[in-house]
Design goal:
The complex is a heterodimer of chains A (224) and B (230).
Chain A: H1 3-42, H2 47-62, H3 65-75, H4 80-83, H5 87-91, H6 94-120, H7 123-131, H8 136-166, H9 178-189, H10 192-220
Chain B: H1 12-45, H2 49-64, H3 67-88, H4 99-124, H5 128-136, H6 141-171, H7 183-194, H8 197-226
Helix pairs in contact in B: 1-2, 1-4, 1-6, 1-7, 2-4, 3-4, 4-6, 5-6, 6-8, 7-8
Classes of the chains: A mainly alpha (224), B mainly alpha (230).
Chain lengths: 224, 230
């Protein structure tokens, strides 16, 4: 064990953690909106709309995240038309490509989580709302969504942790996130174990924080 | 379409072999994972605090650290570790481990952590009476486990194991960073030499989708088989 290397690489890895956290939070926020949108589409009675949402989530859940990043980062740049539009400003940056890929991926999983949460809401609760004369829109925003969020907290917590691990793939498109920097240090010093212990420790710490925050929220919003 | 032709002119045969490689790595990794689960599930269920701690450390670390980081550890550290062990036995030549073994082992350890959790959950949800009844019937320990407990465990575990299989299959795409020529690596090579990344990566996505789809169908059949009588 090379303690000196571990101490020296710690600040570098900590700096890289900021990149990881930025990627994670940006993709989770965008992904949550995508997930909510597609969960609502899934519950739509129109066959085409709900098939469309199903196919979306099936494709993104059935292929590796690495393929999705590569298609967006290497693939989309190939379309001549895209290069002349405003979108190119975003798509030429690996940072945004990674965020788009992560957001679409987590959006697919989130939509499944939210869909099942909406479906487990007891019809009696909605009927109670209706019989009180509350408009449908308010029932949806003030009754269904809060209950669905509470229902989906445990599964969503897992998804956050999975996504945090997923952000490590950003290093494959030249981004220097925690894994990227760890790989750089490993390949220059050839001390994989030491770097793994430090970088892995930081990841585990983040997992620990997320896990406990979700547990806390679960307790706080427990209505039983 | 001509890009996918078999033979020297297209990438069809290369991608076909790459797909076989992905399947081979996934199955090997899944089996290595089962081996790990076989070791760690009893540790998790044991009453000994220390053994519990060992098993919990394994599953927590693997499930909390990115797969890519684990693969880098094995890729850069695997050769060193094996050579260190060999040097204890007096063998000092350079040993090269091939990418298949490194990759399958790295993914296997990851998949093992998930399998361990699945088996633990399944065994814990079997009614205590089943254990007692098998004891009362005077079966040997061996018979108790293989004839009574295991078949019931499998029924409960198969749906979750199918998730583990999907995760394992998708994780094998990460081995491409070590240079093993599976779907992802082959698409990378093809995309590089034809300058058509959009087509090849999309085709890789289609290949993965068909693999997940087909394996789902197969696993559903298994599920039906093991739920006979329920």
């Amino acid at each position: 064990m090379d303690l000196e290397l571990m101490i020296n690489s710690f600040p570098k890895l900590l700096n890289a953690t900021v990149v990881t956290l930025k990627l994670l939070s940006a993709s989770l926020i965008i992904g949550l909106f995508i997930g909510l949108l597609f969960a609502i589409l899934r519950l739509n009675k129109n066959v085409f709309i709900n098939k469309f949402a199903y196919v979306y989530s099936y494709i993104f859940r059935g292929t590796p995240l690495l393929v999705q990043i590569f298609i967006i980062y290497f693939g989309l740049g190939q379309i001549e038309y895209l290069r002349s539009t405003v979108l190119w400003v975003v798509l030429k940056e690996p940072y945004w490509c990674a965020i788009i890929a992560f957001a679409l991926n987590t959006g697919a999983y989130t939509s499944e989580i939210l869909r099942s949460a909406f479906q487990t809401i007891k019809p009696g609760i909605i009927e109670a709302g209706k019989s009180l004369g509350i408009p449908n829109k308010i029932i949806f925003y003030k009754i269904q969504i809060p209950i669905a969020i509470r229902q989906s907290l445990p599964a969503y917590g897992n998804e956050i942790i999975l996504m945090m691990k997923g952000t490590s793939l950003a290093s494959t498109v030249t981004l220097m996130d925690l894994t990227g920097v760890a790989k750089y240090i490993i390949s220059t010093t050839f001390k994989p174990v030491e770097v793994f212990v430090v970088a892995g420790g930081i990841y585990l710490f983040m997992t620990f924080i997320i896990h406990n925050t979700i547990k806390f929220l679960e307790k706080k919003y427990n209505y039983n | 379409m001509e890009l996918l032709a078999f033979g020297d002119t297209g990438w069809g045969d290369e991608l076909f072999y790459a797909t076989l490689m992905t399947i081979a790595v996934s199955i090997t990794a899944m089996l290595i994972g089962f081996l790990f689960a076989l070791i760690f599930t009893p540790l998790k269920l044991s009453k000994n605090k220390f053994l519990n701690f060992v098993a919990n450390t394994y599953t927590t670390i693997i499930r909390g650290v990115p797969e890519l980081l684990v693969i880098y550890l094995f890729f850069f550290g695997g050769t060193g570790a094996v050579m260190y062990v060999a040097s204890i036995f007096g063998y000092n030549e350079y040993i090269e481990i091939n990418a298949f073994i490194t990759g399958a082992f790295a993914i296997g350890i990851i998949s093992g952590a998930y399998s361990t959790e699945v088996f633990r959950g399944a065994i814990q949800s079997i009614d205590q009476g089943q254990f007692e009844a098998s004891k009362v019937l005077g079966l040997s320990k061996f018979g108790q486990f293989f004839k009574i407990i295991l078949p019931q465990t499998l029924r409960l575990a198969i749906p979750n194991l199918s998730n583990v299989w999907q995760i394992t299959l998708k994780d094998t795409s990460l081995i491409s960073v070590t240079g093993l020529v599976e779907i992802m690596r082959q698409s990378y090579i093809a995309a590089g030499s034809t300058r058509d990344p959009l087509f090849f990566y999309s085709f890789a996505a289609v290949l993965y989708l068909s693999l997940t789809f087909l394996s789902m169908k197969l696993i559903n059949k298994l599920e039906v088989k093991y739920s006979r009588g329920y």
